[in-house]
Protein 1
Amino acid sequence: MGKNNTRFLIQFAVLAIVLSAAIMVKEATSIPVCNIDTNDLEKCRPAVTGNNPPHPGPDCCAVARAANLQCLCPYKPYLSTVGIDPSRVRPLLANCGLNSPSCF
């Protein structure tokens, strides 16, 4: 495995642990990842989970507008580990009036 792959895997592991812990702990300290405070992810959870998710609300769209979406691209294959259905991201962004990065 190359040096870049190992570095990416370590970065992903840290991100997955941080996001999982923040979601599971009710009053976790918010940690910014790609300009998203981890506690704010809950504002979008309904719109990215389940078979027939509702449209995102204004609070979720505010989180999406503040996010560095391109920064999330390397983590797309792993979003499901924190309860996010990657196929729901593009519709969420479209419903918020945002363009999706090419990775979504």
Note: The mean pLDDT is 82.
Protein 2
Amino acid sequence: MASSNGGEDFESSLLSFEKLDRASPDLWPEQLPGVSEFAASFKNPITNSPPKWMAELETEDIEMLKELGSLTTANLMEKVKGLQNLAYQLGLEESREMTRGKFLNILERPKK
């Protein structure tokens, strides 16, 4: 069995007295770019101006955000699946139109 003095020496050898400056951006970079700026926008709720990202939104966009925000998880997933199906259908339609254009030679470049 090891002596208690030997155990204390081992534990003390594991201690680190290094001081880390957590304020340094080089040592502790932002893991997700933009998160600090986003979080800072919530620190001062007194300002009445909307966040930068909302400045370019129209009323219709804001209504859509409110509608999507009020959906349950299942309803939101259903909405996403609907959008995926729509994107797939548009892709099929585009493919048909490109094939049609190829057969009609409307996509050919004029010869010089």
Note: DSSP finds five helices and no strands in the chain.
